Amino acid sequence: MTKPKTVKDWEKVCNNLNKALQSQMQDELKLRAVIDNLEEQVGKLEEQLTMSVGVIKYLELQIARSNPVRSDKDRA
Length: 76
What we know:
Largest sheet: none
Distance between the termini: 95 Å
Structural class: mainly alpha
Helix content: over 70%
Number of helices: 2
Strand content: under 5%
Shape: rod-shaped
């Protein structure tokens, strides 16, 4: 690439750099939107996981309460 010599050449260089910068900024906005969406989805999944763990613990307690202690039956 040759060095710009005239004002017109420099204007082209600046214009191209501005276009590249604008494009990069648009890409960054798109990526930020994707990241925000993914963070929201992760948050929802964390909530679901927390609820699932709670349900499992509740069910474990219910099972434990409904089953008599086996060691007492074995002794008798």
